[in-house]
Amino acid sequence: MSTFSVYSYEIQEGNRSLLYKETKEKAIDMANVIIGNLLHDGLTIIGKKNRQDQPLKSLKLTEHEGVFTWILCNVKDIAKYEGHDKIMLESHPGGYVIMDNRPDICQIAIEQNSAFDSTDKVVKYLKRAFNFHLADYGLKIIIKQKCHAHKFKELIRERIAKGDSVKKIVWDFPNPDKIKGLDATQQMKNRLEGLKILIQATNALKGKLTLSGSKKHPLSSDDEKIEDLAQIIALCAQNGYNLSYYFYNSPMVCFKSSVGASCEISYTVLFDFEQGQFSMCEDKQCFELIARLDQVRIEIADYEHEKVFDDAD
User: Fold this and answer.
1) Which of these, 258, 244, 253, lies nearest to 210 by C-alpha position?
2) Other Cβ atoms closer than 10 A to 124
3) What confidence tens digit (pLDDT) does each residue in 169-216 have?
């Protein structure tokens, strides 16, 4: 069993709206295909050694149903001794990278181990590698760590339980026309379509919604009673968007300062995926790793399965 840090990624359209190869499809609409092709073609990921660029090895690249796994190796020097003589050898410790490139999921899980100083460093290398190629399509990738919605909600409820009240809520929301990889319910996507009118005129990538109250009439922040608020919290947890709660008597609480999301995935599940081994999930065959990734999304959003994934909403 190993612990993985969980991130979301989205593909954004830059200043140029380009077409994909010889087709008439916009490049942004083919974002997942482009990401998949880059990985299949052998994406070169550049790390750092002694402040110098260093190509990193990728081992065991595997893909099933839009989910990719591989072991990304770092470059480190280790000492070997022959008596009093010290000989420096090059070592290549590695950690798993899982990239869930299914449309409107776009989730990355990076193994936490001693191969790299931090998973954030791996994110930096991945972002650099993808953006080098995505620029040819007028696109760029944004990678953000997910946060647990449940922990965020607990912070809010603790403040209110201590007698404080919510003064203001500020939510940064995306322009769905400008990005690919938005992991949200159909109900939330419908809400964004309405809000999109506010940012269409400026062709912006995102907008901001501010809700203000007063001491006599504080904002209601009970997500269990306000469905739209619960949807916003889930969307921010899944996609790394920011949501801030301002209080009268205590400091602001926002997703950016919340605890980053992590999950446990066993090596057995990863090995089975590499071998193309199916498991039984709810009376049908599935890859256990993909089922686990779906469960991670539910846990992070702190939402019922039917509410998160019901496209009929």
Assistant:
1) 244
2) 15
3) 999 888 887 888 989 888 888 888 777 776 776 777 788 889 998 888
